[in-house]
Design brief:
Structural Genomics Hypothetical 15.5 Kd Protein In mrcA-pckA Intergenic Region, Chain A, OB fold (Dihydrolipoamide Acetyltransferase, E2P), SH3 type barrels, five-stranded antiparallel beta sheet, 2 helices
Amino acid sequence: MKNHLKRISTPRTWSLKRKAEKFIVRPHAGGHSLEFGMAIGMVLRDKLGLVQSLKEAQKMLHSQTVLVDNKRKKDRRDMVGLFDIISIPALSKFYQITLTNKGKLEVVEITEKDAAVKTAKVLGKSMISGGKIQLRLHDGKTVLFDGDVKVGDSVQFDIAQRKVKSVLPKKNGAKVFLTQGKHAGSTGVLKAIEGDLARYTSAENKEDVETATRYLFVVA
């Protein structure tokens, strides 16, 4: 696999100036798809403006502790993706990857308190040896959990202790975030689920919107 992508060919979720440099760094394969993940070096340079070049990003990663979900990153090509939490203790700065209401990845600053817990969507669950239930989360992580949770629900994940704190069920009245489709990046309150389709009341315009159930990401 090539180390770089042509900037003009990058996913539209990346929200980059496509007529700037011809090539851009390709992230290592990670828990996120390329559509929802970027290289940490690109985030430090293009999104946060903490460095001027990828070379400087690499130096920063070696000289300072940069954590993604409480794990240190040392390679500028390591992937960071949707809802991941970036912590830079030396600067007392904390950020999270999210989507704009136009479906573009962006990095927003959050508080240290908010950086302790990450919301993650449950994409799968299976029984492993010993009869324990293992959850597969949207960011590629797996975690053991013996509580009541369904595929499609979200969990509040303590990134320091690496355990589930609580479950956010996908049910009527839940606050949802749209990750795909023409409404990607919008939020609202879930009204109904009918098979593959769901209806929610948009927080932006208070109108009822129909979308694919798989696009829902419960956030509260």
